[in-house]
Amino acid sequence: MRLEAEHKYMLTVHEYLCLMEALEKTACWFNRKMHINYYFDTEDFKLHKSNESLRIRNSNNVYTITYKAAPMGKSSSNYLERNEYEAPIDSNTAERMILNDSRALKLLPVLSGIDNIELKCIGQSSTERTEFYILSSPILLDKTNYLGVTDFELEYEIQDGTDDSYALIQLLDHYNIHASLNAVSKSKRFFMRLSDLNMSTHKVSD
Length: 206
Known about the structure:
single chain; alpha+beta; globular
């Protein structure tokens, strides 16, 4: 278990491209990765409704399973603080879970109030992540695609208890970027979009 503490800002496509261009010129080093996140929940979205999440991430064919607890009291509109449990998982087991193989799903972690046999893979998102090394922790620029939506965000995770996010705010101000403070996690955005699509489908059928 570890404590995840991060600042998140939603960006417009213009702000994302502006920051990308600027940081590529000023960062001492940067790195790009592709992540595919597979989200698990019950059919009635018990985890989502409790502000929890369970995912399997594929990054360059390396799989990791991660459970994130509900945000803690210090969380705010653009700051998330919560406990995170993460472990590597072999590709064969991960792929069977993603395909909702019942025997593989039984290996999912047992979560409070939920029988792991209730869990299944609900859907996925893909994220192109660029990591810039300027401050004490990397600045992450993410472009994420899910359910017909593309959105953009900046993440800054606090490491070793050092929070110099004030420097991040100065950086945003320098480039005249007024990022949205109403940032929510990728998993929550995915499930909110899924709920909207389900509601639209029901209205059409009615």
